[in-house]
Amino acid sequence: MARSFQHAGQRARLHVIDVKSGESRVVFESSEVLFEAPNWTADGWLVVNGDGRLFRIPAAGGAELEEIPLGDIPELNNDHVLAPNDTSVFVSAQDGHIYEAALDGSEQRRVTEVERPLYKHYLHGVTPDGQTLVFTGITRVAQENGEMIITLIPAAGGEEVQLTPDDHADDGPEFTRDGARILFNSERGSSEAGHAQLFSMNTDGSDIRQLTTDERVNWFPHQSPDGSEIAYVSFPSGTLGHPADVDDVQIRVLAADGSIRELARLFGGQGTMNVPSWSPDGTEIAYVDYPLS
């Protein structure tokens, strides 16, 4: 089911923040539609999901949300990734499958083929050439046991290849800009849940490297267009999963030299920055917060 507001007076605010100056502006806000997960088209539109649907709005603001027609695709969750050709979008639906839809509404197709009861595909990334998708595969049993497996599938459909078939909870996989590695967050750096950190690995699952080692809980790494920085969502220490409506959530940026800086602090979490959200020129990041007043 689509997520809805849990508190009286709560609203969703879509922000764009300058990565260098830290100056932020509100593009759009709503107390009616709980929208999530902004990403950015090459021609200056932000794409978000809400109420199980997909919308776009100019990054410059001054407009209302405009629905993107998805035909017969079932209700969405909040994982959607723009294709490199910028004419279509890959989406995860509540029926557990991944679909591709033209942004002009002209056509849609299902990517995933295998029917498995209770299995969910949570999409997060596509290769720069648009040929391969990476997602987190979860079953109900796996979710209860903390097993979340990073998996590849051809964008055209076909065989799924599991990269992390182990007992660790892995999520948020996204290809680096050169397509050579996959960024992700994982609990594999600790024996206790609530210590997720950022990692990277080769596209065959080898050479896993830990990128952050701090006291906070770090999720959803997104590499800048020039490959020099990684933006991510950081939760307070001990946070389990990536819940909504958390105080002291931070947007942080990891530089190539390992230094980390806080870019924004907010009330939010789930939906704030689940998908690639850098502007095409790498100067800004889009994110959502959910203030209570």
Automatic annotation (TrEMBL):
Pfam families for this protein: PD40
SUPFAM superfamilies for this protein: DPP6 N-terminal domain-like
Similarity section: Belongs to the TolB family.
Gene3D superfamilies in UniProt: TolB, C-terminal domain (2.120.10.30)
Matching InterPro entries: 6-blade_b-propeller_TolB-like, WD40
Species for this entry: Gryllotalpicola reticulitermitis
Record protein name field: Biopolymer transporter Tol
